[in-house]
Design goal:
The complex is a heterodimer.
Chain A lengths: L12 E12 L5 H16 L8 E5 L6 H4 L1 H9 L5 E5 L5 H14 L5 E8 L17 H9 L3 H16 L3 H15 L13 H6 L2 E3 L2 E2 L8 E9 L1 H6 L6 E7 L30 H13 L8 E4 L4 H10 L8 H6 L16 H5 L3 H17 L12 E8 L3 E8 L1
Parallel strand pairs in A: 2-3, 2-4, 9-10
Antiparallel strand pairs in A: 1-7, 1-8, 4-7, 5-6, 8-11, 10-11
Helix pairs in contact in A: 1-3, 4-14, 7-11
Chain B lengths: L3 E4 L5 E2 L6 E7 L5 E2 L17 E5 L3 E10 L18 E8 L4 E7 L13 E11 L3 E10 L5
Parallel strand pairs in B: 1-10, 8-10
Antiparallel strand pairs in B: 2-3, 3-4, 3-5, 6-7, 6-9, 7-8, 9-10
Classes of the chains: A alpha/beta, B mainly beta.
Bound molecules: zinc ion.
The site of zinc ion has 9 residues of chain B, from loops.
């Protein structure tokens, strides 16, 4: 195992600071959200911007050219100070790739202190592909040929769970009820109102069997982390910082037999048998192996609930329960506050709405607050190990394990 | 004026009526099948890569899952904003002999209420949209129990 590295500690980096700009629809530039989050992370770490050796930006494709070079955009807005810069894009997994880049620089000794920032200003309504006629782009083709929006893929996955595992729309609604109750306690969440199962059931169907309140919205928001070497953390007086122990950024293995956004078809398994585990399960397994832990060691998990049904899928992919047992785990209360393994204590995407390049970073912010035991009314008692999980369009795994 | 019938995407399907088929490609070295068609190189990581030949896909398959689109999708999907939005169903279909799942719209008139996972469907030619000169054609899935 690479992460063991002989003494078992060499692969850790410290989370010295975290910061967020509240999620919402603020109508301003992503640059403003990102720099606000960065300044909050710097203040949280007790560092000044000129102390930062390197800045890694998670790109947005919705902010014009500055969005494609987010690292430099944030560095300029904070004031050029000569730091090394990188900008990464991996759809919903962009934040994890930014964290992975920062971590690699720190572990390689190229930088002591790295600022990771992601921010987005979301459009109204459905995400849509970039403009122009591009018949060789699967993302353009799925809209042109099928009108297959993101929610229709979530609908397909949800219907499949109903057919194969016996999940019900009521199970899905309970995910929303749980996450909305947690989001109501989170000052950074966009939706801060509790929701009842009746309200979910009364909301309009968007993509059968999913209703409006089963599906996450798109939001403005920004999140940032200040990562550093353990040596730097010690010198800086952080005796027991939260540590990132694993970052999984794996791709699928051929043949990928689960229909994946934005694809129109799966790979064929006619010549090569399908792998033993799905892509999503491999994302979590890789993170567990790198961290040298298993699902039984977790205190909490932040998962990408693009839809309520997808949260149940993550329970299984993370190994919190067996295949098909996600709804049972939810109904038992295991994933609620006070349960065996609380999931989405932040309120999840259900309460935030997705701000693509910021979201995977925001997941790590929540895990950090939980591990520091400063999460207030959302606090998981005695939290020691947290995992985040997410999957970016076009085959991007994303999972971070943090410990304290 | 007569519109020209033109595929909305080139070389993904061929034929009329019962002869209508989706077109994929197959690696002559490892026999992996690709849809949408892969014409440059086999994507099996363990295959050195053989020539890719065009193959028609199975005409029938079974529903892996289904959903619908209750709201008007954004461009480049084409719909008439003057008319009320009519939801249509989308089906992901598992083709047995190719071991592949292919997404498509259902034929008009079939709704999610008519569908179940595992139901047999067949691929048929359909119309995606029309403009002044062109009828843009596509593939659609139709339950085999339905004739229309
Ligand atoms: Zn091959």
């Amino acid at each position: 195992m690479a992460a063991d590295g002989g003494d078992g500690m060499t692969a850790d980096v410290a989370v010295l600071g975290v910061g967020m700009h509240p999620w919402g629809k603020w109508g301003r530039s992503f640059v403003e959200y990102g720099t606000a989050a960065a300044r909050a992370a710097l203040a949280d770490a007790g560092l000044d911007w000129p102390d930062v050796d390197s800045v890694v930006g998670a790109d947005t494709v919705r902010g014009g050219y500055p969005g494609y070079v987010a690292g430099a955009t944030f560095a300029k807005a904070l004031g050029w100070q000569g730091a090394r810069v990188a900008s990464v894009y991996a759809a919903c997994a962009s934040g994890a790739q930014a964290i992975a880049t920062a971590r690699a620089q720190i572990l390689a000794g190229l930088a002591d202190v790295v600022l990771v920032v992601g921010a987005d200003a979301a459009p109204k309504g459905f995400f849509r592909p970039a403009g122009g006629d591009r018949p060789d782009d699967p993302d353009w083709l799925r809209f042109r040929l099928l009108g297959a929006t993101n929610p229709t893929y979530f609908g397909l996955y949800a219907r499949r769970r109903i057919a194969v595992h016996g999940d019900t729309p009521e199970d899905f609604a309970l995910v929303k009820v749980k996450n909305a109750a947690l989001g109501a306690l989170n000052p950074y969440a966009r939706y801060r109102k509790r929701v009842t199962a009746e309200e979910v059931a009364a909301s309009a169907v968007v993509a059968d069997p999913l209703r409006l309140l089963d599906i996450c919205a798109t939001s403005d928001g920004g999140a940032a982390l200040l990562l550093c070497s353990l040596d730097f953390a010690r010198r800086h007086g952080a005796a027991r910082p939260v540590r990132i122990r694993a970052v999984s950024t794996v791709t699928p293995r051929f043949p990928n037999t689960v229909l994946d956004l934005p694809d129109i078809a799966t790979d064929s398994a006619v010549a090569v048998p399908a792998p033993d585990e799905t892509f999503r399960a491999s994302i979590a397994r890789t993170a567990y192996e790198e961290a040298g832990i298993g699902p039984e060691d977790l205190s909490l998990a932040e998962v990408y609930d693009l839809s309520t049904a997808l949260e149940l899928q993550w329970y299984e992919d993370l190994g919190l329960c067996g295949e098909g047992e996600g709804a049972k785990l939810l109904r038992e209360g295991a994933t609620a506050p006070g349960g065996r393994i609380p999931v989405n204590t932040s309120g999840g995407l259900a309460s935030f709405g997705e701000a693509v390049p910021a979201q995977a970073i925001a997941q790590v912010c929540e895990v950090t607050w939980q591990l520091r035991e400063v999460a207030g009314d959302r606090q998981v008692a005695g939290a020691r190990v947290g995992i985040t999980a997410n999957q970016g369009l076009f085959g991007h795994g994303s999972s971070v394990v943090a410990v304290r | 004026m007569t519109r020209t019938r033109t595929p909305a995407v080139s070389d993904w399907f061929t034929g009329e009526g019962d002869g209508f088929r989706l077109l994929g490609t197959r690696c002559t070295s490892c026999a992996s099948v690709f849809f949408p068609r892969e014409d440059s190189h086999c994507r099996n990581p363990h295959c050195a890569g053989g020539a890719l030949e065009e193959v028609p896909l199975s005409r029938t398959g079974r529903i892996w899952s289904y959903t619908d689109s209750r709201y008007r999708p954004p461009s480049p999907y084409v719909s008439n904003p003057e008319l009320p939005w009519e939801p249509y169903a989308l089906i992901a279909v598992e083709l047995q002999s190719e071991r592949i799942v292919v997404l498509g719209q259902t034929v008009p008139g079939v709704t999610v209420a008519d569908l179940t996972v595992g139901m047999e469907v067949e691929v048929v030619p359909g119309v995606l949209d029309e403009d002044a000169e062109t009828t843009w054609t596509t593939w659609q899935w139709r339950p085999t129990g339905v004739t229309a």
